[in-house]
Amino acid sequence: MNIDERKTLISKQFQQAFGALPELWVRAPGRVDLMGSHTDYNMGYVMTMTVNQDTWIAARHRPDRQVCLRSLNIDGQSCIDLDNISHDKDVPWSNYVRGVAKVLQEKGYALQGFDGLIHSTIPFGSGLSSSAALEMASAIVFQQVGGFRLDPVQMALHGQEAENKFVGVSTGILDQYSSAMGKEGCALKLDCRYLVSENVQISSELQVVICDTRAERNLVGSEYDDRRKQCERGVRFLQQFYPEISALRDVSLDQFSAHAGEMPELVARRCRFIIEENQRVLDLAEAFPRNDLATIEKLFSASYAGARDLFEIGAPSMEAMISAILNSPGIVSGRQAGAGFGGCMVSLVKADQVEAFSQQVHKLYQEKTGIAPRIFSTSASAGAGLLNFG
Ligand code: ADP
Ligand code: MG
């Protein structure tokens, strides 16, 4: 579906749902991490990139204090009463927007009512951050309709707070920051402690290809919380020797290695992964501009191996997918994306071989698992903002 077709579809559905045409259009992209699994809540670095799959909201101002929402991706209509923002158990997806409204109101912003129709091309729950895209898109609508302006980093922080406190999903800042601050045409080396990022250019000879395993993802939430706790235990242990540290980000590999043998074995493995993965982000930021394919390949495979063996966020579907990826033409390297436990993987492919690569990955993965994967090229799109059709 091209942009015109998408706009026509949404306009038509909007008119049917709300009885008039939309007067405001916003978008927010999903994102993929090219390096830096689970480093964000350890205050470290992530190589992140927006994708050109995104979430649109078409909206129209309402004279009352209601925000009425529908989505073309999922059933249900939900109206938020801005004078009494509560959870909606029956339409749980609306809680992402409710959370954003609640947090903005708590921060003192005056919100106004609107009708909103959501449409996304980001697959849900597979590591490309459809939830953050929904939060950032709705934060843009609230600003436009309410007539106030948020700094994009603040907007990301408010979105994270909404997801953590209102929706009740503990996440780092990576998803919202990427969606709010992403730049067209380049990746970002994000520093999750200081919330600053640098643009990183990737050679046009390389194409980012997402390989969605489409396998059932179980236990992501509880496993994610376990990993966070194990990292925190590691920090508390290492603080005995290095009282100045407050996160794994502060620990060098040498400092860690000096005491790794004294730590509980499981915690040591988790910490080693994060400390090494963090360094890989810095190394990748140097390798990308040089288009140093040998180094990029080494970093990606070490990241995947560490995720599987040390951090243990792998899954049989990911094993099947990485094997398909590595045995397909044009591959430079591949690794996990998002939190792991299935979902999407990300690969770097020689740009002139993407078609052959995609076909072969599809075939090999389906032969092995019986599941038809979703394979698609992507590129970095602009961060969240207004859609201009001019
Ligand atoms: P991810 O962010 O990795 O895609 P999450 O589980 O964090 O996965 O968020 C997915 C949830 O976000 C969906 O189950 C749904 O509740 C909500 N969501 C995201 N995009 C939309 C959309 N376009 N319409 C309605 N709900 C959405
Ligand atoms: Mg999410």
Q: Which descriptors would you attach to this protein?
A:
11 helices, four-stranded antiparallel beta sheet, Ribosomal Protein S5, domain 2, binds adenosine-5'-diphosphate, Alpha-Beta Plaits, 390 residues, globular, binds magnesium ion, alpha+beta, eight-stranded mixed beta sheet
What does this structure look like?
This protein is α+β, with helices and mostly antiparallel strands. It folds into two domains: 3-200 and 381-386, Ribosomal Protein S5, domain 2; 206-378, 2-Layer Sandwich (Alpha-Beta Plaits). The protein has helices at residues 3-18, 94-106, 130-146, 152-167, 174-181, 220-239, 253-259, 265-290, 293-309, 316-326, 354-369, and strands at 24-35, 45-61, 66-71, 77-81, 114-120, 187-191, 196-200, 206-212, 331-336, 344-350, 374-378, 385-386. A hairpin with a 7-residue loop joins strand 9 and strand 10 (344-350). The longest helix is centred in the C-terminal third of the chain and has 26 residues, at 265-290. The two termini are 18 Å apart. Magnesium ion (MG) binds at residues 129, 131-132, 175.
* Count of alpha and pi helical runs: 11
- Determine the mean pLDDT: 97
Tell me how many strands there are.
12
Main β sheet profile: 8 strands, mixed
Write the layout of secondary structure elements.
Elements: H1 3-18, E1 24-35, E2 45-61, E3 66-71, E4 77-81, H2 94-106, E5 114-120, H3 130-146, H4 152-167, H5 174-181, E6 187-191, E7 196-200, E8 206-212, H6 220-239, H7 253-259, H8 265-290, H9 293-309, H10 316-326, E9 331-336, E10 344-350, H11 354-369, E11 374-378, E12 385-386
Parallel strand pairs: 3-5
Antiparallel strand pairs: 1-2, 1-12, 2-5, 2-6, 3-4, 6-7, 8-10, 8-11, 9-10
Helix pairs in contact: 2-3, 2-4, 3-4, 3-5, 4-5, 6-8, 8-9, 10-11
Bound molecules: adenosine-5'-diphosphate and magnesium ion.
Residues 55, 71, 73-74, 92-93, 96, 118, 120, 124-131, 134, 338 line the site of adenosine-5'-diphosphate (ADP).
